[in-house]
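Try it yourself: sequence plus 1,3-dihydroxyacetonephosphate, in.
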Amino acid sequence: MRKNIVAGNWKMNTTVPEGVQLAKDVCAAVAAEANLKCDVIMGVPFTHLMAVKEVIGDANVGLAAQNCADHTSGAYTGEVSAAMVASTGANYVILGHSERRGYYNESYEMLKTKVDLALENGLKVIFCCGESLEERENGSFKDVIGAEIRDSLFHLTAEQMANIVIAYEPIWAIGTGKTATSDQAQEIHAFIRGLLADKYGAQVADDTTILYGGSCKPSNAPELFAKPDIDGGLIGGASLKAADFMGIVTAF
Ligand code: 13P
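Structure, out:
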């Protein structure tokens, strides 16, 4: 059975003290929730990983980095390796976010390498995909999403796929207040699950968690999460306030 997950992506927000306070608030709220129906993950800046890990302690909350390097170690000034991320106690890394693909030119090939390095270092991957507004409007969106997934993930074995979570994030819905309708999101989630089934068989497809991201908030999360192929959310803006984030966590 696949897991439901609600993951926060804090992006480049909060100082370390602010992030520690947010993590404390989220952990306290999660601890107070008697009937949690999903895994909760916080995706924090590199600088925050160790301090947030300390806040999490034994609590039932996962920790994600938002990127890792496409090299193992060495002369790559400013980069942070998957091994470094894992050594902080983080258990996940977000890879392939459209902001990284768009602003930092991350290619399918580079992401393939990052995925391999993350898995080699024992990290689970939250792998993002999604189309631009232009690709949605010209009808090429399924080709784009299919290529993103195939070219960076389909070299993996079925066993390795157990450590991959996919996040569908239509770029036109990120930070815009414009959510994909639950039907639009469900259509793509079912399409992605179909790609997984064709490549790896029904069991892997059925076991893979597929998250929706893009202006997800407490008011629209229940309708999105009620869809059969939407297994939770990757949350940007609404993950920066513990109350909003918990409003999504409790939407299941
Ligand atoms: P928003 O929730 O702010 O639209 O961001 C979504 C996102 O990019 C999560 O990775």
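One thing you can check immediately is this: The chain has a mean pLDDT of 97.
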